[in-house]
């Protein structure tokens, strides 16, 4: 019953994440999704399951910390924390601080990318999937990684805004890392 309790709570957190209307609630559901999904990975209690759960937790908390950093900066340089098409950055506050915000945007994308399996923060995936029970592994690959992608899209399109990021090194770096992730994942699957 313990496994299915955590499984059900994790699904509730994912639903809350999908329905979040602002950065704060998205972040809170993102963190709770992580905390309630860790017991799914270590369910068997075996040594490798505990090691994989610790790795998953470390990568997730590291990524969430970068996402929280983005929240703090958006609170200072934005007009609201609600998701607004085109972004929420205040041009008057941003003027002269563009490079700082570009760096924060990149770190935020990388932070949420840790959950999505974005290179180079992807090594928790091959550790966690084999030791988790089949339903938990399906949840990790089918839903939880997509929650990271959802957070990335929301931060890019509804917080920083595509006009702010278009043509910048952040856009190039994000696309490059996404392509490297796809290529490495394909090559690893090909080798199996």
Structural class: mainly alpha
Individual helix count? 9
Unreliable residue runs: none
Number of DSSP-assigned strands: 0
Estimated radius of gyration: 17 Å
Portion of residues within helices:
over 70%
Q: List SSEs in N-to-C order.
A: HHHHHHHHH
Strand content: under 5%
Q: pLDDT average, as an integer? A: 87
Span of the ends, CA to CA: 34 Å
Which oligomeric form is depicted? single chain
| Shape designation | globular
Largest sheet: none
Short recap of the structure:
With 192 residues, the protein is mainly α. It has helices spanning 2-19, 23-41, 47-77, 91-94, 98-116, 124-131, 134-160, 162-165, 169-191. Helix 2 packs antiparallel against helix 3 (47-77), helix 3 runs antiparallel to helix 5 and helix 5 (98-116) runs antiparallel to helix 7 (134-160).
Report on this structure.
The chain is mostly helical and 192 residues long. The chain is built from 9 helices and no strands. Helix 1 packs antiparallel against helix 2, helix 2 runs antiparallel to helix 3 and helix 3 packs across helix 6. The termini are far apart.
Kindly list the characteristics that best describe this protein.
single chain; mainly alpha; 80% helix
How is this fold's topology laid out?
Layout: H1 2-19, H2 23-41, H3 47-77, H4 91-94, H5 98-116, H6 124-131, H7 134-160, H8 162-165, H9 169-191
